[in-house]
Amino acid sequence: ARRLGLDPAAPAHAVASLDGLPRVLAASALRGPAPVGGRLPAPEDPARAKPAAADTGPALPSGRVGVGPAVPVLELPGSWAAARTALRFTAEGTPHAPGPLVVYADELGGIGLLAELVVPGADPAPDVQALEAAVADAPWMLTTLHAVASTASLRGAAVEVNVHHSTLQDRLGHAEALLGWPVRTPQGRLRLQLALTMRHLGRQQVQ
C-alpha cells in the first residue's frame, strides 16, 4: 500500500479502464460520485446520456472508466472486480454510443446484476433483437430512444435530441411499431431501459 502512495488505514478505489491496467486511487483523491448526468439509464434511476467528464475528478484516467467502491486496502481485489463490472456500463457518449464515460460501481444498484446475465457475443434477448432492428431502421432511433429512457419527461427527451415535441411523438409512434411495445408508459419505458442496457452490455468486451 505504501509503495502505491496509499495510507493502509484509509479507504481506496480500484479503477478499471479499457487498457486493462488496474489502478488504485485513495478515496480522498476523488471528488465524489458522478452526478446523475454520468450514469447509464437504469430502471431505478433514469439518467442523461451525456458523460460527466467535468465532474470525474483529476485523478481518474481519461476515457471510459469504471470505479470500484472505496474499501480498505486488503479488500481492493473485490473493488477491482466491481470496477471491471462498472466499466461494462460505460460508453463513449456519442450518438452511436450514448451513455456515460465514467460509472461508479456503488451507484449501479440492482442493475449491476445484469452484467452477470448478459454475456458479450451471446445470442441477444428478443427485446434486444427488436431494438437492434429498430435502430437499423433510422439514424435517429438510438439517440431518441436513449433520450426517452434517460430523461424525466418526453418534453425533456425532445430537448435532449433537439426536436419539437410533436416530432418526438411521431418518432416514438414509429419506434413502437417496430419494437412491438409502447415506450410511453411506465412499464414500456422500463422495458426499453432494460433492452438498451442489455444491448450495451452485450457489446462490451472488457480485458
In a few lines, what is going on in this structure?
The chain has 207 residues and is α+β, with helices and mostly antiparallel strands.
Commentary on this structure:
With 207 residues, the chain is an alpha+beta fold. It has 2 domains: 2-117, no CATH class; 126-202, Arc Repressor Mutant, subunit A (Orthogonal Bundle). The protein is 38% helix and 8% strand. It has 7 helices and 4 strands. A 4-stranded mixed sheet has the order 2-1-3-4.
Topology record:
Layout: E1 12-17, E2 23-26, E3 65-67, H1 76-88, E4 102-104, H2 114-117, H3 126-137, H4 141-150, H5 154-161, H6 165-179, H7 186-202
Parallel strand pairs: 3-4
Antiparallel strand pairs: 1-2, 1-3
Arrangement of strands in the largest sheet: 2-1-3-4
Count of folded domains: 2
Count the E strands. Answer: 4
Write the element-wise H/E pattern from the N-terminal end onward.
Answer: EEEHEHHHHHH
Can you give the mean pLDDT?
A: 85
The Rg value, from CA coordinates, equals 18 Å
Helix count, per DSSP?
A: 7
What general form does the structure show? elongated
Protein name: PucR family transcriptional regulator
Pfam family, one: HTH_30
InterPro entries: CdaR-like_regulators, PucR_C-HTH_dom, PucR_C-HTH_sf
Organism: Streptomyces sp. SID12501
